[in-house]
Amino acid sequence: MKPILLSLLNTTEQDITALSPYYDVISIKSLDEGLALPAETLERVEALFGAATRQVSIEFLDALPNLKVISSFGVGFDPYDESYITGRKIRLGYTPDVLNDCVADLAFALLLDCARQVSASDRYVREGRWVTEGIFPLGVQVSGKRLGIVGLGRIGMEIAERAKGFRMDVIYHNRNPRTDVPYRYVESLIELAKQSDFLVVATPGGPSNAKLINQEVLEALGPEGYLINIARGVVVDEDALVAALQSRTIAGAGLDVFVNEPHVPEALFELDNVTICPHIASATIETRGAMRDLAIENFIHFSKHGEVKVAVPWANYA
């Protein structure tokens, strides 16, 4: 009898065909639906297909006594408790790198939209205001400006690469400076914000980075600065950001992620200095396909070798 792979995602016929030599696949719509499965079924579960945007509780994991491997669809791994996963020696794989280009592309799309007011000007025309009010307000030039990146990892590096085409001066803030990049390191996040025309957040989520971009950082960014967030909603103090946009403490923002997705602060809907996307940074046919392929490959690799193909940084065991 094959072990069971429990999937929190919709699995395609292609997925099931690839996995069927190794697992019996059961898809569930929620953790509660999984917990309602018979005990003998839960005992057979050795693999879990999760996602970076789907929280997985310890209660749920406790109900899977023989769980050996998780493959998470996405680059974030904040839904998983590090001490719990490492304590049980569960192998945890994820899907980095294959989405770097698309996430960086969207970061720049948001940056350009904020500066040149593409979405706002589209609404201006559709509402007939070009006729009744005349010339649309001036935007801001992007070329030659200074780009501050919070988190110069895989995605941050791709964002910096795109900035070269706009002749931007790239500076960055990490926990520690990198010695392998040509960009200037700024030790203080407040100072990075002060020096930036555009501040792009590309750092991991999780409790350690919760509200990293707070009122003080936004005030340092200032009334001519723009915030772009393609990381995780929790990294930004959402209440402080709404207040900063309302008061024009900052010039504007481009947001793809939020604290309580899919719920977005309604106050943002009334503002023309913010561009809002429904967490679509990796949402292209090519990238989502590559992510799914790697997520499935993590399971197959584990079945053959006892390790996932790509493990999260803290889930590599000796």
Automatic annotation (TrEMBL):
PROSITE patterns recorded: D_2_HYDROXYACID_DH_1
Residue ranges of domain D-isomer specific 2-hydroxyacid dehydrogenase NAD-binding in the record: 108-281
Metal-binding among keywords: no
Keyword NADP attributed: yes
GO cellular component: cytosol
Residue ranges occupied by any D-isomer specific 2-hydroxyacid dehydrogenase catalytic domain in the UniProt entry: 39-311
Origin superkingdom: Bacteria
UniProtKB keywords: NAD, NADP, Oxidoreductase, Pyruvate
Gene Ontology terms for molecular function: glyoxylate reductase (NADPH) activity; hydroxypyruvate reductase [NAD(P)H] activity; NAD binding
SUPFAM superfamilies, per the entry: Formate/glycerate dehydrogenase catalytic domain-like, NAD(P)-binding Rossmann-fold domains
InterPro entries: D-isomer_2-hydroxyacid_DH (IPR050223), D-isomer_2_OHA_DH_cat_dom (IPR006139), D-isomer_DH_CS1 (IPR029752), D-isomer_DH_NAD-bd (IPR006140), NAD(P)-bd_dom_sf (IPR036291)
EC number(s) recorded for this UniProt protein: 1.1.1.79
Similarity field: Belongs to the D-isomer specific 2-hydroxyacid dehydrogenase family.
PANTHER family to which the protein is assigned, alphabetical: 2-HYDROXYACID DEHYDROGENASE YGL185C-RELATED, 2-HYDROXYACID DEHYDROGENASE-RELATED
Protein name: 2-hydroxyacid dehydrogenase
Gene encoding the protein: ghrB
